[in-house]
Design brief:
binds iron/sulfur cluster; single chain; two-stranded antiparallel ribbon
Length: 319
């Protein structure tokens, strides 16, 4: 983070100042929690350690959403399942939704524990080439509440990035909580030297969700996080009996398609509602194995192909 970020108010004392996060100018500033935590005052040596650790990770992808309940974790899980269906690729899913970790359940790993080895925490494996790490593995029960303030959450994210034995990975997918909070600032800050490929933003079609997505997009622009594209989830419902399509969440303002045109962002695709997606998540199974020929599964394959193309083009541009 620069000394005076672009989004700071006029009388910002500077993020390196002793007064950072504490002056009257800081009241209402979007960075106040981070500045008040002290994390901005000196470069955290963990950033360099994480950059070294991430040298063996080819692509880092964040999955973001403006709102909760739009299917972000479901998308993250199925993005990983699809990437890992190529058994020449090593894939990992990191769940940094510290207060609401749903990935263990969606990936069928509830009750699993993380083990400590000489080279760090070992992630939990769904397949030989698909590893998962989540705070959910550190809780004694799925119903335990994690009520942590910013600095403690930041510390846990730092540990996840630095102390997990990720090994050689083709893709690290990071599932974040909804909105723009401590977890987002932390992950962007800690991966600042390790180069994030970009963010995939998940929304539903209705305007109330898109309003929050626009904020998420502004966040990405402010922290200079590239946007891979937007996914419209729950985009229409095809009745499995009569095959008629209905709009459960009507795109009253043109949906993600119009928003992407206005903001000049790629729309990666639209995933229709399918009740089997929720059922397979509850059962901890991949929907893509369950209904591989469904319109929703086909939408997933097409979207994931576009993400893979983006990552490989980016790698080529860097070389
Ligand atoms: S919270 Fe941080 S960025 Fe915002 S005004 Fe204060 S010092 Fe500046």
């Amino acid at each position: 983070m620069a000394d005076v970020p672009d989004n700071a108010p006029e009388h910002c004392p500077g993020t390196l100042s002793e007064q950072a996060g504490k002056t009257s100018a800081c009241q209402g500033c979007p960075n106040q929690r981070m500045c008040a935590s002290g994390a901005t005052k000196a470069p955290d040596p963990a950033i360099a350690e994480i950059a070294v650790k991430m040298e063996t990770v080819k692509h880092k992808i964040l999955v973001l959403s403006g709102k909760g309940g739009v299917g972000k974790s479901t998308f993250s899980a199925h993005l990983c399942h699809t990437l890992a269906s190529d058994d020449t690729k090593e894939v990992a899913l990191l769940d940094v939704d510290i207060c609401g970790p749903s990935i263990p359940r969606i990936m069928g790993l509830e009750g699993e524990q993380v083990h400590q080895s000489g080279s760090g925490w070992s992630p939990v494996y769904v397949e030989d080439n698909l590893a998962v790490m989540s705070i959910g593995f550190l809780l004694s029960s799925p119903d335990d509440a994690v009520i942590w303030r910013g600095p403690k959450k930041n510390g846990m994210i730092k540990q996840f990035l630095r102390d997990v034995d990720w090994g050689e990975l083709d893709y690290l997918v990071v599932d974040t909580p909804p909105g723009t909070s401590d977890e987002h600032l932390s992950i962007v800050q800690y991966l600042s030297s390790a180069k994030i490929d970009g963010a995939v933003i998940i929304t539903t079609p209705q305007e109330v969700a898109l309003q929050d997505v626009r904020k998420e997009i502004r966040f990405c622009q402010k922290v200079k996080l590239p946007i891979i594209g937007v996914v419209e989830n729950m985009s229409g419902f095809v009745c499995p009996s009569c095959k008629n399509t209905s709009q459960i969440f009507p795109p009253t303002s043109g949906g993600a398609e119009r928003m992407c045109e206005e903001l000049n962002l790629p729309l990666l695709g639209k995933i229709p509602l399918d009740p089997r997606i929720g059922r397979s998540c509850d059962e901890g199974r991949s929907f893509l194995n369950y209904a591989p020929e469904s319109p929703a599964a086909k939408a997933y394959y097409s979207i994931v192909q576009r993400i893979k193309d983006y990552c490989s083009n980016r790698k080529n541009e860097e070389q």
